[in-house]
């Protein structure tokens, strides 16, 4: 596989610059589905611009975490971004086992927000934090089942190799397994990014919120950090799904780069379509659903074991 | 039973002297027997100061029966206290709290005697009123609390994140489960019942129309019927009555469609939410086509209606309806065909039929529990004496039942409206007059607003003005139903439970 570090760097910079476009694409898609014009694609940028010009107002009951949580979350996500193989080019920072660092950097970002939410002492934020952690614990299982599948299929614990290695595409069970695992990764992405049907990022109903309830007390640049982090996380996890589906030996690096970019934006349209046709699940249904996702990911793993004859 | 009550028809008047005045104990026994054994509902229960200056208070109860089509009136005189009926008949719960607040009446035995509106006592309240200086900071009261490791309290409002009216909700939760919900209102109190005595005058009609702004037609119809029953010279012609009915059904359609859209919005089902938001506007615009105001503020008046309504206008609205109704059907079909939506609605916020009857719920909230209660059928008034939209019914009492019932009512009202508009012959039904009310009378007028039974009671003084004007909004009966629906429910289901009732804050607070 020819490597071209230029396209990896281009992929990273695109992610940093275009991440806020993705929520814009989702909202535009939703608006199209219901026959509305919808906000401009660039609306998330306008919002960030507005927030960064404002002052922060911080709760006087806070003892600190409220203030540093947004920065910690953004730093964790920026670090995690370094390990994805954009356009199927190996990350220059990759090392064996970085898949775990990747997963727990995302976990660290969430931990920061949860601690910040608990710090406010508000009952809404406490409820939001409690829900976030409850569902995150269940999502983690499904996410690691997907990582396990990738590790087994690629015989590697290096995230770059896991996502960019050419799979034995002539084995039908492996193709089925890849599609299953990518589906589960898509579901994990929806949960992790608090999208419908698991959470509703647009709602104003504080009693039903998960992620949004945790950030009710934030304003100004703090909120801007959180919104930008959320956009980065959405981009990063959508890119993960796209990379799983995009075989590394498909084309040359420039074409892969274009495909990667289009894939992520198409991911935004798919998310928008899912949100437009589905109502939100009730909370009691989420644990069942997430455990089901874990089992499906394990089936994908089993299929790969069978398809590749198992063993090393 | 001997004549312990006075029986009258809906929208009629009788001399106050003919209403039997019983000793307090007999009064309580009569009410208890009627409500507990004979399935009567408490439509109104209010105080009537003996005279502006004097001590003492009369309590007047208006009971109605869902089938008999009559109203039972009975009264009693009390001094400072009235032993509570609530432990035996929960339907009196809210009325007794109102009496305690409006007239500083002591209600011994009441399990939940807190202010409901945090309003100052009405003029003519007992002279004892300074004995317990009422706390008049709205929302400042002793809320029920739950103690222990596993429980927590969530307070919502009075300022909400959406564009809705103010109200305070206090949840006692065990994790995600609600143990109890306490609702504290009063933020919208404007002192309506204090402003109405002395009327009718030029401001009476606008005040009534804005008692609860989304039920203007129902409210003004109830008022107009009261005036007409108290002034035999003021009789509306059949065209005016029919136009009132047409406007009332348009009001029902607009609100039902809007609420179903809002329910869809609360479960993040975008398509129906977006379509219904627009379609609600179509029905409001039809009302504006009739009278120039989207909420029908200027349509109904004592003696008839304020507007002419020509066959050409009827034809225009009929064609408009025929264009819009398939779109409504389409938008609702999307929602009720969606498994994810049904999963959210089904089994959520259930109120049992027994609870609905005991609490005296009204309107769609009661019908969804299997209580066949619709004044257009049980106590027909105005044009509904001739024909009324079909009675809708539900059984399960959950959010799905309330939503489904609204859908049935949309279909029934739409069919009825199309029939009436197609047959509209009158060229001119405009008729109005100045009410000259008979003195010393009591009149009861009940209409089926889109939220349910709305009861107006007027007592006239010797000079033919209102001595007391009592408004019982359907929300007054139903707020406690929402609290019951939330017991044991997930706290995240509160928004859809709330929206499925969609009660009025200002109609309650007056």
Question: Can you describe this structure?
Answer:
The complex is a heterodimer of chains A (312) and B (510). Chain A has one domain. The mean pLDDT of chain A is 89. Helices cover 69% and strands 0% of the residues of chain A. Chain A contains 12 helices and no strands. By secondary structure, chain A is an all-alpha fold. With 510 residues, chain B is of the alpha+beta class. Chain B has 16 helices and 14 strands. Chain B has helices at 24-37, 93-103, 192-195, 204-209, 216-230, 238-266, 270-291, 311-336, 339-345, 353-359, 363-367, 375-378, 399-422, 474-486, 494-501, 505-509, and strands spanning 6-9, 12-15, 21-22, 41-49, 57-64, 70-78, 151-156, 168-174, 177-184, 300-301, 304-305, 441-449, 452-460, 466-472. In chain B, the strands form 4 sheets. In chain B, strands 1, 3, 4, 5 and 6 form a 5-stranded mixed beta sheet that branches. A 4-stranded antiparallel beta sheet of chain B has the order 2-12-13-14. A 3-stranded antiparallel beta sheet of chain B has the order 7-8-9. In chain B, α6 (238-266) packs antiparallel against α13 and α7 (270-291) runs antiparallel to α8. The longest helix of chain B is centred in the middle third of the chain and has 29 residues, at 238-266. The interface between A and B is medium-sized, with 31 and 30 residues.
């Amino acid at each position: 596989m020819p490597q071209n570090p230029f396209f990896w760097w281009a992929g990273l910079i695109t992610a940093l610059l275009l991440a806020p476009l993705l929520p814009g694409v989702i909202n535009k898609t939703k608006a199209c589905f219901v026959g509305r014009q919808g906000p401009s694609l660039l609306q998330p940028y306008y919002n960030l611009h507005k927030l960064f010009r404002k002052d922060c107002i911080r709760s006087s009951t806070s003892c600190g975490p409220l203030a540093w949580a947004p920065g910690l979350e953004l730093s964790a996500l920026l670090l995690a971004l370094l390990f994805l193989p954009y356009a199927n080019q190996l990350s220059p920072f990759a090392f064996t086992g970085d898949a775990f660092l990747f997963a727990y950097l995302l976990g660290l970002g969430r931990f920061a927000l949860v601690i910040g939410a608990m710090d406010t002492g508000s009952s809404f934020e406490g409820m939001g934090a409690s829900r976030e952690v409850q569902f995150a614990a269940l999502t983690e299982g499904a996410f690691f089942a997907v990582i396990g599948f990738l590790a087994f299929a690629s015989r590697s614990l290096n995230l770059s190799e896991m996502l960019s290695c050419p799979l034995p595409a002539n084995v039908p069970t492996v193709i089925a397994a890849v599609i299953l695992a990518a589906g589960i990764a898509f579901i994990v992405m929806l949960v992790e990014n608090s999208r419908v049907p698991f959470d509703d990022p647009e709602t104003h109903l504080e009693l039903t919120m998960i992620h949004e309830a945790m950030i009710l007390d934030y304003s100004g640049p703090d909120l801007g950090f959180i919104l930008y982090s959320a956009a980065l996380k959405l981009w990063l996890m959508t890119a993960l799904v796209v990379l799983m589906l995009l075989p590394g030996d498909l084309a040359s690096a420039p074409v892969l780069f274009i495909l990667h970019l289009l894939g992520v934006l198409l991911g935004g349209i798919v998310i928008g379509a899912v949100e437009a046709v589905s109502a939100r699940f009730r909370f009691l249904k989420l644990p069942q659903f997430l455990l089901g996702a874990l089992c499906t990911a394990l089936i994908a793993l089993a299929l790969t074991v069978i398809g590749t004859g198992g063993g090393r | 039973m001997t004549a312990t009550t006075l029986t009258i028809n809906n929208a009629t008047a009788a001399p106050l002297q003919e209403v039997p005045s019983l000793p307090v104990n007999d009064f309580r026994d009569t009410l208890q027997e009627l409500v507990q054994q004979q399935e009567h509902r408490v439509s109104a229960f209010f105080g009537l100061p003996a005279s502006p200056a004097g001590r003492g208070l009369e309590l007047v109860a208006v009971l109605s029966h869902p089938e008999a089509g009559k109203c039972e009136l009975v009264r009693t005189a009390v001094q400072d206290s009235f032993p509570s009926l609530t432990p035996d008949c929960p339907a009196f719960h809210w009325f007794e709290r109102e009496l305690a607040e409006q007239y500083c009446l002591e209600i011994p035995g009441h399990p939940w005697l807190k202010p409901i509106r945090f309003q100052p006592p009405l003029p003519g309240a007992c002279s004892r009123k300074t004995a317990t200086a009422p706390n008049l900071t709205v929302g400042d009261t002793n809320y029920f609390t739950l103690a222990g490791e596993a429980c927590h309290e969530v307070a919502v409002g009075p300022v909400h994140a959406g564009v809705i009216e103010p109200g305070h909700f206090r949840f006692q939760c065990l994790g995600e489960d609600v143990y109890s919900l306490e609702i504290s209102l009063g933020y919208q109190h404007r002192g309506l019942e204090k402003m109405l005595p002395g009327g009718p005058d030029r401001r009476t009609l606008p005040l009534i129309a804005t008692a609860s702004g989304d039920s203007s037609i129902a409210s003004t119809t109830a008022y107009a019927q009261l005036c007409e029953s108290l002034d035999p010279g003021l009789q509306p012609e059949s065209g005016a009555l029919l136009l009132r009915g047409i406007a009332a059904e348009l009001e029902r359609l607009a609100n039902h469609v809007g609420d179903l859209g809002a329910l869809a919005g609360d479960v993040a089902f975008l398509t129906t939410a977006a379509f219904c938001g627009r379609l609600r506007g179509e029905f409001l615009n039809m009302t504006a086509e009739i009278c120039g105001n989207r909420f029908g503020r200027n349509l109904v008046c004592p003696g008839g209606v304020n507007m002419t309504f020509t066959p050409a206008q009827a034809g225009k609205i009929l064609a408009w309806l025929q264009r819009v109704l398939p779109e409504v059907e389409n938008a609702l079909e999307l929602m009720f065909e969606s498994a994810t939506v049904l999963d959210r609605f089904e089994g959520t916020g259930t109120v049992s039929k027994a609870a609905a009857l005991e609490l005296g719920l009204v309107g769609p909230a009661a019908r969804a529990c299997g209580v066949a209660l619709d004044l257009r059928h049980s106590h027909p008034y105005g044009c509904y004496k001739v024909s009324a939209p079909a009675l809708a019914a539900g059984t399960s009492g959950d959010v799905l039942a309330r939503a489904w019932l609204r859908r049935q009512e949309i279909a029934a009202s739409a069919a009825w409206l199309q029939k009436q508009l197609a047959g509209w012959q009158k060229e001119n039904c405009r008729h109005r007059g100045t009410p000259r009310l008979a003195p010393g009378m009591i009149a009861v007028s009940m209409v089926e607003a889109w939220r349910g039974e709305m009861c107006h009671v007027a007592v006239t003084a010797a000079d033919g003005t209102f001595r007391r004007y009592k408004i019982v909004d359907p929300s007054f009966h139903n707020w406690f139903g929402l609290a019951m629906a939330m017991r044991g429910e997930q706290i995240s289901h509160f928004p859809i439970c709330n929206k499925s009732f969609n009660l009025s804050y200002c109609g309650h607070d007056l």
